[in-house]
From TrEMBL:
Cellular compartment(s): Cytoplasm, Cytoskeleton, Cilium axoneme
Gene3D superfamilies: Ribonuclease Inhibitor
Organism name: Chlamydomonas eustigma
Designated name of the protein: Uncharacterized protein
InterPro entries membership: LRR_dom_sf
UniProt GO cellular component terms: axoneme
């Protein structure tokens, strides 16, 4: 088979014999299995225990957890890591050994034992390209100099590595890493540890952050000058890392002509912006010193496409940002508009319902000649993210007419609700916490295809979303408008394909009521939704004592799947009350024939073996099943195929 060709399986799967497979070398078998997609893997592995074991070893992306024991034996079902390309390892910590039989075993010894078994110096890992080490307790350093040098001597083809907190002694082993290393994610506790990063000349992506409990790290101007010697650097992220000399802050960075992404932790003034290379495309900073007038001074030489800041933007700030013609993605705390201007624009919207309301088929933007109070317009913005409280006023469609993706962390809904929502004709992806303005906002998004609603904290909000009950209205004219909308079948976005529902802990005693609401979905939802995601955030995020939420159980899952017979993909995140038996029964009895993809993330009652065995057990060998032990691993390490890993 030539490169780019993939092995296609038909009914000849049964023709494979174990004796023939035993005659092939591991390298040939690896090339064979690496060309199979998830569906063919399940079909082939079911015909031979040898192939099943082989495929478990040749999965290219694996997530492991190191056990807290003196001697690390072979992981059941995993004989080698020789064919792994991406490896994520969860390190043990001091907290995990308290109150257990292994309380006398230190995490450093457990890591050393693991490396002796799977990072054997006599058997290098030639295919390992990405390695991520994760540590929950960031107050103590587990990765020692010996451990890091051990990894460097075995994994000589590493291109990317992510390390937890390193002690100054362990940081001395950084120059021993592969010279082909292009990406380094580093957590340090002191400034001198940064001096060793400049000895990796091929670095293209460098991320430096401080350990837990350390408010900031001071970077000298000399160290910044040394970083500028990494001429291949494309991405530089300094999290909680400040630069000592504020007068010449970014001068050395002007030598990084390939730099496209910069994340800093200190405010930026106009003088500092002018010192940045013109190749910069992504800029993240806490705030602009002296306001956003600095952005207006960048000039046309800058090709800034994404700006992320943690400050609230006013109308004046938005006017300055309009000078950045290439800016398409914006992230800020929120947008502040004066109450008088909001009321004036709402009055204009109410006077033009036929031309610019929900039913408009033409240009949905407000007519400037009819608008006595103009708003700043950034037509180039395609993606908008609010990281703080946003006081919803329904006017974003006027300021961002080309908006395609909008994400909000939390919403502070004014009382009463806005009587009119300006249309968002281009919006395709919306992430908005559950609130009482969501139904009227959905009516203004005719092109919406992806909807994510986290933080559903009461049954009333769930009913408003699923049955799209009109929100409270205060004016007589608005009452008539919403009365017409409530009777129209197009109230639910007609093109919506993906629906994600996230439940908070306040509903942990209401699974029966949630199941009843999901089972009575209207026909408009049943016909259009193809991808369903259920997120259970009903856990104590502050203490982390509970591994997953208890809101979404087997009955909630069964009601959702039974109501959506046309779903093609199902995704469960942190659903601690969903069992493997319950999921199997739902897939066997309620799921329609189109269900072809099931993904389970952070659901402790569903094992990896149960999930991956379901396709063949149900007679659907081509169904793709993906599994990941926790949502943190899924988010930060292997976003696509975490099912290929196993947990010790």
């Amino acid at each position: 088979m030539s490169d780019g060709e993939y092995f296609e399986l038909t009914d000849t799967v049964a023709a494979f014999s174990v004796s023939c497979l035993e005659e092939l070398s591991c390298d040939i078998l690896y090339e064979l299995t690496s060309r199979l997609d998830g569906r063919n893997r399940h079909a082939l592995s079911s015909c031979s225990k040898l192939l099943q074991s082989l495929m478990n070893d040749t999965f290219s992306e694996v997530a492991l957890s190191i056990p807290l024991q003196k001697s690390c034996s072979k992981i059941q079902g995993r004989n080698s890591l020789a064919y792994i390309r991406k490896l994520s390892i969860q390190l043990p910590d001091e907290k995990s050994r308290q109150g257990t039989d292994n309380s006398s075993i230190k995490p450093v010894a457990a890591l050393s034992s693991f490396l002796d078994v799977y990072f054997n110096k006599d058997k290098p890992l030639p295919r390992l390209e990405s390695l991520s080490l994760h540590q929950d307790d960031c107050m103590t350093s587990i990765v020692t100099y010996d451990a890091l040098s051990h990894i460097a001597s075995v994994a000589k083809s590493l291109h990317s590595i992510s390390l937890p907190m390193l002690s100054p002694e362990a940081a001395c082993a950084l120059p021993l890493l592969s010279t082909s290393l292009t990406s380094l994610n580093l957590v340090v506790s002191d400034s001198p540890s940064l001096d060793f990063t400049v000895q990796l000349p091929c670095l293209q992506h460098l991320s430096i952050s401080t350990r837990e409990g350390l408010y900031y790290l001071l970077l000298s101007l000399g160290q910044l000058s040394d970083l500028s010697k990494l001429t291949a650097l494309k991405s530089l992220k300094l999290n909680q890392v400040f630069i000592s000399d504020c007068r010449q802050t970014f001068n050395p960075l002007s030598a990084l002509t390939s730099l496209t992404e910069l994340c800093v932790s200190s405010p930026v003034s106009m003088e500092r912006l002018n010192q940045l290379p013109s190749s910069l495309q992504i800029l993240q900073l806490p705030s602009f010193a002296g306001g956003l007038e600095a952005a207006a001074g960048l000039g046309h030489a800058f090709n800034l496409t994404e700006l992320r800041c943690r400050q609230a933007l006013t109308e004046t700030d938005l006017n300055y940002l309009s000078h950045l013609r290439n800016l398409s993605r914006l992230s800020c705390d929120n947008i502040i508009l004066s109450d008088s201007k909001v009321q004036a624009v709402q009055a204009v919207l109410m006077s033009q319902p036929a031309e610019h309301g929900i039913e408009s088929d033409g240009d949905s933007s407000l007519n400037p000649s009819l608008n006595p109070v103009p708003l700043p317009v950034l037509a180039q913005i395609k993606s908008l993210c609010f990281t703080g409280y946003h006081k919803h006023n329904g006017l974003l469609g006027l300021m961002f007419p080309g908006l395609e993706m909008w994400k909000v962390s939390s919403v502070e809904v004014p009382h009463p609700c806005p009587p009119h929502v300006a249309p968002l004709p281009c919006l395709k992806h919306l992430v908005l916490p559950s609130c009482k303005v969501l139904p009227s906002l959905l009516a203004a998004c005719p092109a919406l295809t992806i909807l994510s609603v986290p933080g559903i904290n009461c049954l009333q909000r769930l009913e408003e979303l699923l049955h799209l009950a009109p929100p409270p209205i205060t004016t007589a004219s608005a009452q008539g408008s919403h009365a017409q909308l409530a009777t129209r079948s197009s109230w639910w976005p007609p093109h919506l394909k993906t629906l994600s529902l996230g439940f908070s802990s306040s509903l942990r005693f209401r699974p029966k009521q949630i199941a009843a609401s999901l089972s009575s979905m209207p026909v408009a939802i049943r016909c259009c939704v193809r991808h369903l995601e259920l997120q259970d955030r009903g856990r104590d995020a502050g203490t982390g004592m509970e591994p997953a939420g208890r809101v979404v159980d087997d009955s909630v899952l069964a009601s959702a799947v039974a109501a959506l017979q046309g779903i093609e993909a199902l995704r469960l995140v942190d659903c601690g009350a969903v069992s493997g038996v319950g999921l199997c029964q739902v897939m066997q009895q309620l799921a329609g024939p189109k269900l072809a993809n099931v993904e389970v993330i952070g659901c402790p009652q569903i094992s990896r073996a149960e999930l991956e065995g379901m396709p063949c057990m149900l007679g659907r060998p081509f169904m793709v099943s993906k599994w990941c032990p926790n949502s943190v691993c899924h988010t930060h390490t292997i976003p696509s195929y975490c099912n290929r890993g196993c947990k010790l």
